Amino acid sequence: MLSSAAAALAAQCLRGANVAGAEFGDTIGQLGTTHFYPTRETLDYLASKRMNVVRFPFKWERLQPVLNKPFDMNELQPLINSVAMAKSMGFKVILSPHTNARHFGKQIGSREVPARAFADFWARLAALYAGDDDIIFLLQNEPDYMDAAFWLPSANAGIAAIRATGANNMILVPGTIWTSAYHWYADQNGGSNAAVMNGVVDPLDNYAYDIHQYPDEDFSGTHRSCPAKDTAIEALQQVTDWLKASGKRAILSEFGGTSSPDCLKAIDEMAGFINANPDTWIGWTYWAAGDWWGDYPLSIQPATRGGPDRPQMDALEPHVLGSTGEIPQCASMTASPSGLRSTR
Length: 344
What we know:
By secondary structure, this protein is an alpha/beta fold. It has one domain (4-337): Glycosidases (TIM Barrel, Alpha-Beta Barrel), CATH 3.20.20.80. Helices cover 33% and strands 15% of the residues. It is globular. The chain starts with a helix and ends in a 10-residue tail after the last helix.
C-alpha cells in the first residue's frame, strides 16, 4: 500500500515537455551525429521549472532494426541511461516510439509490419520497465494516413503484449490523423477516432488517450503565427466532452507555438484549459525542449547555456504549479477510465 506521500506524488498532474533529439535524422543514422539522447543539461533546466514529466521520442527502427529480433544495445543503452537519469531527478518518463505507426516506412498492420511484430516490440520494451510507475508507455506517435479502424487492432495488440509481460504501467493510446483534437470527429472509413477508439481493450483499464493540438493555421505546428487558437480550444473542449461522456481520460502530449504574441497567448490558454479539467486530462507536455534545436521557433530550450528563458517558457511556467506552490493532483491520474464515466 502506498504511503500518503507516495500516493500524493502518484496523483500529481503531469506538467512537462518533450525532450527531442533521439528521433532526429535519417531512419538509422549515426548516434552522436544525426541524433542524440536527452542530456542532464536539458533535464536540469526542466527540473528548475518544477516540471515532473518528460516525453522521450525515439525511432523504433534504431532500437529494433529487424522485426522480431533483439534490440540494438548501441541504441538501447543510451535510452536506458537517459531514462535512469530522468528518474533520478524525479521525473516520470513517457517512452514514445516516434515513427507515425511505421517501421522503415511500412505501416503497422500491413503485411510487411503485421500487428504481431508491433506486439513483439512492445513485449521487449515493456519487460524492461514492467511495474515501474514512473514509466509510461506511449504506443506510437501520431499515426497518419491510416483509418482508425485499421489502427485499432494493432493498438490493442500492443496493449495485450505489454500486459502479457506483467507490466501494469499506464499506457497512452493515440488515434489517427496525427491524433489531433481537431480531427477527433473527422470522417474516416470505418468511423472517426471518436467512434472507433472507444474500442480500446486493456485488461487493467490503465490507459489514457494521447492527444495533440497546435494552434497555427493548419494545426501542424509548422507556421510562425497562431490564428487558430480559438478553434484549437474548441477542439480540446469537444474531446473533453467526449472523454466525460465516455468515462475516459487523456493527455495533451504535444502543443506549442512560436514567440509571436498570438502563439504565446495560445500556449497560455491551452495549458490553462488542460489544468482546468483535471478530472479528464492527466496533464500536458509541451513541444519541445532539447539541446539540439538551435533556432527552432517552437523550442523552449534557452538559446545559450544558462541564457534567458524563451518567451514560450515564460507563457508556460505559470501553469506548472498550483496556488499552493506545488503541482496539483488530477483525479484522472488515479482513477481508471471506467471510473471516470459521467453520471449525467
